[in-house]
Amino acid sequence: MSDKPSSGERIAKVMARAGLASRREAEAWIEQGRVSVNGQVISSPALNVTPSDRIVIDGNPMPRRERTRLFLYNKPRGLVTTHSDPEGRPTIFGALPKKLPRLISVGRLDMNTEGLLLLTNDGGLARTLELPTTAWLRRYRVRANGRVDQPTLDKLRDGITVEGVHYGPIEALLEREQGANAWLSFAIREGKNREVRKVLESLGLRVNRLIRVSYGPFMLGDLPEGEVKEVETAALRAELGEKIVQDSGADFSAPLVSDEERMPRKRPSPSAPPRSAPAPRQREEVTAWGREKEPRSQQKKRPRRDRSKSGPRPAYPRNSK
């Protein structure tokens, strides 16, 4: 373990590459005292580690690094791109199949934006693909309320500044008009927060549907809504290119890790006594006067009346109307 920048890599980066969390999440875990290195709990992410260091998270050894994987996900509307939402809204990770490894999103899509979202188990790759220097083109189909002409959209090729924020060159094409709405094709490289919506609002358009159809070389295609598809390793490496592979530290030679080998969930404290099952409740009966009767199991059985000794039951005259 070393604090020299030239020795090893930052621990948060190593944890992210292992697919445990994003760098930001890993740094938060460290500050919460959940991580130890070589038996010593650390409180600062400003630490470099090497392959010989033993890293433990929540009492569990950090699993070995898994092969870099990438998944295409057709995100539905109404899901938040986060692992946990403080407002309790449904998240994409809660909707994903449970058989998948622990994944990180490459960037985010707004709650009401749908379409292609890239997911990976490699935090280094996710960070590299999000960098502005990577400059992958992101294409959207947009339905917006209002009117706009193509010459106005062509001016976006030089970029635009909205409310003090400058957005780089944008490729926009008016596809068709449908009633009060217009369908547009929109392509950007920066992916700033709510960029498509804010730029179109500055042109007098209100976006009411936004679908991402591609991210770099990866296409949404006919992937059904809510479904996930993995990109094969050979195709993934070819599409990324050697520069991104080197910059991200992606590893395509590592093995695939089974569910049993991945780090288990944080377990409850062993000192907490186990909860015993509640005793079965006896059925209680209430009389017409509101007083409880004894349970049937405790009531004394009364002997049946012997009618042979008391004679027949007397007949009572019926009232005639």
TrEMBL record:
Any single biological process term in GO: enzyme-directed rRNA pseudouridine synthesis
Amino acid composition bias (Basic and acidic residues), ranges on this chain: 281-297
Residue ranges of every copy of the RNA-binding S4 domain listed in the record: 9-68
Region (Disordered): 247-321
Entry EC no(s): 5.4.99.-
Composition bias, Basic residues: 298-307
Assigned keywords, A-Z: Isomerase, RNA-binding
Keyword RNA-binding appears in the UniProt entry: yes
Top-rank lineage group of the source organism: Bacteria
Gene3D superfamilies: Alpha-L RNA-binding motif, Pseudouridine synthase I, catalytic domain, N-terminal subdomain, RNA-binding S4 domain
Catalytic activity: a uridine in RNA = a pseudouridine in RNA
GO MF annotation list: RNA binding; rRNA pseudouridine synthase activity
InterPro entries on file: PsdUridine_s_RsuA/RluB/E/F_cat, PsdUridine_synth_cat_dom_sf, PsdUridine_synth_RsuA/RluA, PsdUridine_synth_RsuA/RluB/E/F, PsdUridine_synth_RsuA/RluB_CS, RsuA_PseudoU_synthase, S4_RNA-bd, S4_RNA-bd_sf
Matches recorded under Pfam families: PseudoU_synth_2, S4
Annotated PANTHER family: PSEUDOURIDINE SYNTHASE FAMILY PROTEIN-RELATED (PTHR47683), RIBOSOMAL LARGE SUBUNIT PSEUDOURIDINE SYNTHASE B (PTHR47683:SF3)
Family: Belongs to the pseudouridine synthase RsuA family.
Identification of the protein by name: Pseudouridine synthase
